[in-house]
Amino acid sequence: MRKKLIESTQPPECRKQGWWTIVQETEDIIVLNIFCDGILKSRHCIDISKKNYATWLPRGEWTARKLEWSYDIETEWQYRYYNKNKVKLFKLSDSDKKLLYERFGEDSQKSRSYLFELISRSEYEWACERREEGEKRRQKRVDDIMSKIPPLPDDITDWFYKTAVGEDFAFKNEETGKFVCTVCHKGAKRERYCRDNGEPVRNNDIVSCPHCGSRIRFKTLKRSVFASKDVVVVQPVDDMMSVIRFCNVIGNVTVKETDFHVYEKIRVLTGKGANTAPHKNVYYEQYRGAFDNKSNPRQHRTEDKQYMYPIGIKEALEGTKAEAWTALFTEFVAAGMELAYDDLITCFDGDMHTLMELLFRGRFYRLMSEESGRFSSTGAYCGVLNIKGTSMEEVFRISDRQLINRLRDRNGDNLMLEWLQWSERNHKKLSDKVLAWLMKNRLHTSSMAWAKLKFSPEQAMNYIERQRREQYCEKSIREVISQYEDYMDMCRRLKKDTSDEMVFRPRELRRRHDEAAAEIKEREAEITADEYSQRYPNAEKVFKEIAGKLEYRNDKYMIVVPKKNVDIVKEGRELHHCAGASDRYFDRIAQNETYICFLRKTEEPDKPYYTIEVEPGGTIRQHRGMDDEEPEIEEVKPFLREWQREIRKRMNHEDHALAAASRQKREENIRELQEKNNTRVLEGLMEDFMEAAGY
Q1: Pairing mode, if any, of strands 552-553 and 557-560?
Q2: Which helix (H) or strand (E) holds 137?
Q3: Residue 66's closest CA among 83, 105, 133?
Q4: DSSP 8-state class, residue 89
């Protein structure tokens, strides 16, 4: 669209009321000047020869919107949905209508409605054509790039078998009864296979094939070995870019064949030289094997760890931002390392490069594999090591070099490092037996926090193993520990002396656990109340202060003020509501915001009937009976009104101040509920609400 030409052309004037459109021609461009009550709303420009359109707005902006959007749709929104109403706005002279029909190649003139739809449909079709053409151009660019990608190496499955599987096998042929070597594919009776010491062969033993002499793993229970791993292949594409290819190799090794297939999932193009963007583009495998960067329809992801194909690393990474990894990657691959290469390739932190080299040179292979993928979404390292460390001790956060050597000798992982750090920090020795037990059961230091004061690591291991063996044979070690932690928590709730060995080291954990659970259930109200007393020590003091002001009775009903927290808990349990099971009520009592009182029938003073939440000024916020219901509430209300009047008589200056503060907090709470649109709670409060006179 020739925008400067349009802007230099003065629009006509319009004196007519309502919507009106005046047509101009500027060279080959049709300009629809759209007015409302004589005010220019927009100038919709159409270039039929180039199948293009645009709209100029009086504020000096250009938009790519279609004609139907040029009639002040933002205020007349309904016209967007009803074409018949849109057309009412499309008013123009007969001469202008004739001109538009001619320009759009229509011989006969029809209605304004038809003309409007003709222009709208034309613009819609032009937009579709442009999108299609743009998509074709984009797809051609993708195809051109993808055509440059070299084929995958021919030997990738052979390399994968040697690297990921790493061994050959002897499987039983069910037809012949012989065990067939996957190297030479010749079979022999089981008797011809034997261990190196001459003893009969067993499942998973490494033996020599009697035919070819290859070292193979003898399989008696399986007839195949399945393998599936992600691999990375890096290849140069041209002088401008390289490709990083993420593939999944999957297949089986059987008595008859070794069958592996490569499924390429993701291609990442990385620039070279001046064009060194880490990820120029990411292309995902589509449904028919093609690659595109427009979408990821199969939700392809890389695995946590991959193997890297060894050939072409130097040529592919040279000139890219990942070039610094070339030498190390070559060594990692030669050592058969399975790492998060996808994360390392996109990490340009020199400290990470130094860390990985230190771990590799130090032979901390397992730890190295784990830390290679410890990156946040922003690409920052977030592992357990000190990436800024300048020495082994600083990197591992361990000052004792012997502990570091121990980690290396056992090819330890993150968990082992965590325990060795704990050992040094707490000056506690960990035997090889204990350390192996912790690793086997994947127990973190946080999982063993229960043992730090009462047990040594070895004592903890022996105790838990004995309990599992004698009491919980159906449970795992972690489950037994959970049972012990649950037991100790109940002991603390029951105020037992947890420093007493008879308590913290029960011989029969299951029995003592069940006994504690039963006692908790029996004394639940008392225990809960005691916990509230610890959190709100002033609550019971408040009860004594308000008893003389709030207690009241007549012939039919009476108001009772609880004496202890346990009274509220028991009342809530008896009536099956939340008064004794929520912190908020005790918090309000402690702050003199509201109080909990009991409404009883005078003839049944000890039988729970209603629980009342009342403000210092006598305003009732809630009144709840059994199961949050309100039995006989209309009969009760006259007594409650009588009680409110009596409270007013007993109030002093301090009580009035507390009542005013309570009212303010109540109003703030209501506003908050209104803002959250919590209508259910609001309705419940309004049903119960009984404001005292004067408040």
Answers
A1: antiparallel
A2: helix 112-148
A3: 83
A4: H
Write out the E strands in 534-594. 552-553, 557-560
Separation of alpha carbons 318 and 166, rounded Å: 30
> What pLDDT digit, counting tens, does each position of 582-594 carry?
778 888 888 899 9
Longest dimension (CA), the chain: 112
What CA–CA distance (Å, rounded) separates 11 from 230? 65
CA distance 395 to 403: 13
CA distances from 545 to 561, 562, 580, 655, 662 (A): 10, 11, 20, 11, 17
Same domain, 221 and 292: yes
pLDDT tens string 621-662: 888 888 878 888 889 999 999 999 999 999 999 999 999 999
Tell whether pTM > 0.85: no
| Statement to judge: residues 20 and 33 lie in one domain | yes
Residue 181 makes CB contacts below 8 A (sequence gap 6+) with: 168, 169, 170, 187, 188, 209, 211, 212, 214, 216
Cα torsion angle, 274, 276, 277, 283, sign = positive
Provide the 10 A C-beta neighbour count for residue 339: 25
Matching residue, tokens 């490709």: 243
Number of domains in the chain: 5
The parts of the chain modelled with pLDDT lower than 50 are 73-84, 278-279
Eight-state DSSP code of residue 447: G
Per the structure, the complete domain to which residue 493 belongs is given by: 445-522
Q: Are 580 and 528 in contact (CB under 8 A)?
A: yes
Residue 175 lies in a domain: yes
Cα separation of 677 and 149, whole Å? 58
